[in-house]
Amino acid sequence: MPDNRIRRIQESDVDAVVRLCHELADYEKAPQDCHLTPAQLHQALFADAPALFGHVAELDGEVVGCALWFLNFSTWRGVHGIYLEDLYVSESHRGSGLGKALLAALAEECVARGLERLEWSVLDWNPATEFYKALGATPMDEWTVYRLADAPLQALAHP
């Protein structure tokens, strides 16, 4: 049964979700790296053909959590999946079941669409790793995430 505290993101939620993304950056000890603006998030979510999707957790009319995600594709399975870019619940609402409810909404999305994977990355020190394992999520220890950004990205694009 769907949790009535969780719903699809709406245009009126953009400012609150941007705030939550900045809170997440603070939590992950990288506030200087988060440059997201409401205009950027609005464009990504509500363009004619959006590539980003989201759900929010709402309590008493206030957005206190969010899940931002996009589709990925498995060439081995031959189907799309969901990649969860950000999952965040405000500190004062952790332990309320909202994180699990957001993940459950994404699992429902996968099942309804015939998507076979729900994946995300977690910092090694994040205490939520135990929560994810308790849900049955498997850490992909043999994989290392690589990223090109900023000057190295530019250098590769324009040698």
UniProtKB/TrEMBL annotation:
Keywords noted in UniProt: Acyltransferase, Transferase
Regions that span the bilayer: none
Chain ranges of the N-acetyltransferase domain: 4-158
Superkingdom classification of source: Bacteria
Molecular-function annotations in GO: N-acetyltransferase activity
Family from the record: Belongs to the acetyltransferase family.
The protein's name: L-amino acid N-acyltransferase YncA
Originating organism: Amycolatopsis xylanica
